Amino acid sequence: MVFHTYFIEKKWINEWVAIPMKTIVFIGSYKYGTSKEALMIAKEMGYYVVLCTDKTKHITSNSDFSEVDQIVLMEDLLDEQQMVEEITSLMDQGKQICACVSLIDPYVSYAASISKYFELAETSTDSLRLMEDKIAIREKLKNLPITPFYTIFQPEDSLEKLENEFKSLLPFIIKPPISNGSKDVLLVETIEKFANALKLLKKNHPNNPLLIEEFLQGPQYLIEILVYNNDIKFLGLVEQEVLYNGRFIVTGYRFPGKVDIAEYRSLCTCISKIIEEIGLENGSCHMEMKLVSGEWKLIETNPRMAGGEMNRIIEEGTGINLLKEILKVHLGEEPILLEKKKKHVYAKYLTIGSRGKLLKILGKEQALMHEGVRHVHIKPLEGRILTTPYSMGNRYACVIAVSETAEQAVGIALEAAKEIKFYLEPF
């Protein structure tokens, strides 16, 4: 990895003056999605971009992170002492550290605490940490009507002891308190499935309590939220289409989500109460909620912007680069959230029906030729082993379409998605 110059020199009144490079430190990033896009936006904003990572391949694959000026490889990103030393070293090299940010679980509140240590612009560290723990957030919000019925399965509890208690709750959802994505969120419909779910989750999350929640029926929405100085500056409602095949996989996003005026006002009231209860004064998050018989119920909260193409979806619909405004809040600047347009956006994610080695993918150019298609992303490279979806990471392509109506946007994206063909060798 070739690092860029640590600082620049400027001639001013016959003197050379070292000017610190305004720098944003990012903790962790994927090769695709919101965390990657944040690196690019920071670079476009004129900042020196530093990526702290525990993945050696990020150093060896320069082209994947061309917008990053410097990569810091660490064995353990959660080693706070080493992180402080690395950032202090950057400052000694002439960097002016302006923010420390993460859009990756479980580093969001950790990055906020590092910012606090260096007396940078603060986001609400305690609130972000609370949202990282699914049990803690349920306990905090248990008296609000948005909270569904839930109970906690402790490591010392036995299946036999609790069979009768939980049998009356079927079907229900069981998940660990600290996880991301959908691979650890399991639907339990029978006592037999309960036993299997416990076995799997105890293997992956030993000695941890498990959260058991009632399974709610109703349309599901994702709500993007940005708070600045105790004021909700942005609330974006996105309707989700969810595929269930043993795991919950979101395969479609409609923006803006369709609700009536009364439902939207009720949602805003619910969100305001949640934000007040958890004490989020500065920062961003997204929540997943269901509309159940006219009442909003909270599925979960996440202390960051949603991943994947969420920023592009919102920008295509409103003209607002929400991720850029989120970075501004981390920099201590007031976000500017003025809608420049109002369009309907639909993002269709593609999965596959069988496991195999990817030989080739055809149809991207043809999909882009459909009127209204704004973006087509193909995720996997040739030679990768692809599988049927068991997590959100098994979504292998995305088509985003924009139109004047929701129906048109959906139709365009679905037709364009038909152009994309995966050629697999059985594996």
Describe the structure concisely:
The protein is an alpha+beta fold and 427 residues long. Helix content is 30%, strand content 31%. The protein folds into four domains: 8-120, Rossmann fold (3-Layer(aba) Sandwich), CATH 3.40.50; 124-144 and 218-342, ATP-grasp fold, B domain (D-amino Acid Aminotransferase, Chain A, domain 1, 2-Layer Sandwich); 149-214, Dna Ligase, domain 1 (2-Layer Sandwich); 343-427, D-amino Acid Aminotransferase, Chain A, domain 1, CATH 3.30.470.20.
Q: How would you portray this structure in words?
A:
Mean pLDDT is 91; it is low at 1-17. This protein starts with 7 loop residues before the first strand and ends with a strand. It folds into four domains: 8-120, Rossmann fold (3-Layer(aba) Sandwich); 124-144 and 218-342, 2-Layer Sandwich (D-amino Acid Aminotransferase, Chain A, domain 1), CATH 3.30.470.20; 149-214, Dna Ligase, domain 1 (2-Layer Sandwich), CATH 3.30.1490; 343-427, ATP-grasp fold, B domain (D-amino Acid Aminotransferase, Chain A, domain 1). The protein contains 13 helices and 21 strands. The chain is α+β, with helices and mostly antiparallel strands. Strands 15-14-11-12-13-16-20-18 form an eight-stranded antiparallel beta sheet, sandwiched between helices. The chain has a four-stranded parallel beta sheet with strand order 5-4-3-6, sandwiched between helices. It holds the Pfam family ATP-grasp_4. GO terms for molecular function: ATP binding; ligase activity; metal ion binding. Residues 136-331 form the ATP-grasp domain.
